[in-house]
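Closing statement on the flavin mononucleotide sub-project.
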Amino acid sequence: MKKKYKILTLVGSRKGPASNTLQFCMLSLETLQIQCPEIIIQTEILTADQWRIAACKSCGICFQSGRCIQEQQDDIGKIKEKMLCADLIIMASPVYAGTVSGDMKILIDRLSSWLHTMPLIGKNAVVLSTADSNHGEGAISYMRQILEYMGAVVLCQKNAFIHYGPIRLGDSNSMKPVLEEISKLVKYSMDKPVMPTAGQEDYFKMQSRLYERYRQFGQKYPAFRVAEEQIWEQQGYFDAASMAELVEKRRKNHGKMLV
Ligand SMILES: Cc1cc2nc3c(=O)[nH]c(=O)nc-3n(C[C@H](O)[C@H](O)[C@H](O)COP(=O)(O)O)c2cc1C
């Protein structure tokens, strides 16, 4: 039986089918499927015009309770669920004024508590962007950093330019090696687990020290125990010596949180 591999692609452009960024994602997915004929690649692609996500209200309740109070009113809960069910997440955005689009930023803001609870440990990600002629690096570096804080292993980050630049979306000669590299890295990660970066391990250690303090405080004053610290406890983060150890455990659980 052929192995199945689920990819969720989130595109922060409202241009729907006319989106350059969507086109970059489609080319990457098509190349991947050609390179992996032995795998059934199940893809779901969402562009920003297809989701309804309100801006964060800055109440901070997600950090205390583990849930966003707006979750029932818009699509963030559904998108979170889809992210948690995917083997690979492609996060893609057009460059707007040097960074990600507003839609992508709102989506990321609404996932802020994930920077503390790291539910993407055990998942792989690819980061893509398109820009007319400059600042491609700004958007992809930002998305990479965010996904890494959430625990994902980012296999690669690539920007394609539209009008001017070394890699242009409309120029198949410059795109071919980029698309092949993306496929090669994703294919490799299907067989051999790729481990978190040294930077992610440092982040994990820093967070461990912080949540250990919260735990001690919670033991002394149980009424003030916050949900994030309980998630750390449930997920076994306190007992893990490294993020890599958690990646191994989550992979055995098909990348899902250990509930
Ligand atoms: C509001 C806005 C800001 C933009 N800012 C930049 C920019 O800083 N640098 C750049 O090279 N292109 C910029 N662009 C161009 C887009 O990044 C580029 O056309 C992109 O491919 C659009 O992607 P889409 O078709 O997926 O929406 C901007 C476009 C818009 C609409």
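The mean pLDDT is 95. With this model delivered, the sub-project is considered complete and its resources will be redirected to Aim 3.
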